[in-house]
Every structure is written in C-alpha cells, then in structure tokens.
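#structure-requests
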Amino acid sequence: MANYTNFNLKNSLLALMATASVGGLTLGVAQQAQSAFSSNNHSEGVQTETTLVAAALTQLSATAKSGTPQSFTEQQWKNAKANVAITDVNNDTYTVQVEASGLVPNELYTVWWIKDQLIGKAMGPAGGVENNAFRADSEGNATITVQVPANNDYDMMGVAYHADDQTHGDKPGKIGETAFRHLMGKFVKPNN
C-alpha cells in the first residue's frame, strides 16, 4: 500500500506545474532528474524521477538607440517586447526561448549575445550563425529557440531587425542603416 501511495504521489507531483514567480524565477516540477522520490524500489516496473527545477525568466524591451527604420516612428518601434525563458538545462548547454511581439511583420530578425569588456563590448550570434535568424509572422509575432553554452559569460541579449533582409553572418550588419537594435535585455541564465 505504501508503494502504491508513493507512486500516486509521484504522479500527482508530475501532473502539477506550480508556477510561483518570485524575483523572476519560476519553480516547476519536471520529469528529468533524480530527487528524493527516486528509489531502487519500482512500483509495477515503472520508474518515475522528479526534481524541482528553477527556470529563469526575463524580458527584452524595445530600444531606439540605433535609430528606427524610415517607415516607423519611435513610438511604433518601441511597442515591441519579448519574454525570454529557459526551457531545458543540460550539463554543457541550456535552451533559451524568446517569444516576441510588436516586431516588423514578415521581416527578418536575429538574436545576439553581448558581453561587457574592459573596453567596449563583444557580441556574437546566440545559438550560432546558422541558428540565430528568425522571421516575424504577419502579426509581428515570433518565437525562436537557441541553445547556448551553460558556462557562458554573456551579459545582455539583443534582437536585431534587418532592413536589408540579410543576416550578415557573425555580425548584424551596419547598425542604424541595414540593421537596427530592436529589443535588449539581460541575458537569461539558469542561476539568475
């Protein structure tokens, strides 16, 4: 009876996704790692492992520091925003999902990591050159998922709009002419 009760408790916990947002953290029950409920005794040959996972969340805000494309007023441009969350954490990498709205409909964007340095900033394509590009839908919404190194030292995340419909590889292009910074914010990390 104790094994049956424990099995039901495990299943109940797996069915629960408690989202208590405290200081930008969402706590949830995930079926991916070992926890106090794991044991060598398996009920009816079924092994269930659970763990309490903290998924960091952040938001990206619109910026007009690099100007706006000719067809936009600053007010229109600044209507864009994005929610950023970690959806999967492994030993060497973690997955970042960006859900944006208020983007230029049907247009090309890229997502970037930015790192403060002693002099200036370093930047690169989040997820690599092949994986950082995405296109907004006809409503100006988009979702992109990129995988980044777990031990990164990135400070900020940026989303660039490409007025020339070109990604330009490992650089966003000529800022303020062919590429425009549209969204900026803190780079989300599992331990934020």
